[in-house]
């Protein structure tokens, strides 16, 4: 690997004892730091590598992507250097779409495959978004973001911060809302799906449709909360991830 911390991959705590890498893909408007608290809460054998999209934190000066294809092509060039140990993907909302498309691209290019795909807060890729908001007028856009209950009030109520945040969020939502699924063969590794019981944006039926994308084990776990249930359910969610990785690892040893 050419470096520990490149622009796409943020590894806050490199771990020479790690046996699995967990690549974490954030939601729309989110940054790599969303997953930094996971490092101390996961076993030492799991190394957390967060994906950093342009336009935020250490990539603040870079223009955000508005199309999935170019994003995945560029991300793949960096991430393949990290595949010298078993790895898994965790994608949250928009991050689920990105890691799904990346997994397809990796397979097409004969790169090492993930051992497990964790999907959170997003319907299966063949189900189109019911509502398009990335290009609606500013007042309505801000109200929609407020309804999602994922952006802190100190940002929503600060015009200067919102002037910076809104273009990033619009670009991320354009990524998601203009995405069009291309038919593909199911993956040959397990998929685990997580959802919020009170999520008004993502239905249980839409989550269940992910079972079509694997020929291996499929499981789904619902947690109390809305679209951003991750905040309240972090510990039980991480325990589910650990349990699933153990199960997948044990199955691989038997092959």
TrEMBL record:
Highest taxon of the source? Bacteria
- Keyword set includes Transmembrane helix: yes
GO MF terms here are: hydrolase activity
Could you mention a single GO BP entry for this protein?
Answer: lipid biosynthetic process
Any stretches that span the bilayer, and where are they? 20-39, 84-103
Which keywords appear in this protein's UniProt record, sorted alphabetically?
Hydrolase, Membrane, Transmembrane, Transmembrane helix
One Pfam family cited in the UniProt record for this chain = Thioesterase
UniProt keyword Lipid metabolism present? no
Location of the Thioesterase domain: 21-233
The record's InterPro entries line, in alphabetical order, gives: AB_hydrolase_fold (IPR029058), TEII (IPR012223), Thioesterase (IPR001031)
Q: Read off the Gene3D superfamilies from this record.
A: alpha/beta hydrolase
Q: Which PANTHER family match?
A: S-ACYL FATTY ACID SYNTHASE THIOESTERASE, MEDIUM CHAIN, THIOESTERASE
So what family is this one in?
Belongs to the thioesterase family.
Its recorded name reads Medium-chain acyl-[acyl-carrier-protein] hydrolase
UniProt source species: Anaerobacterium chartisolvens
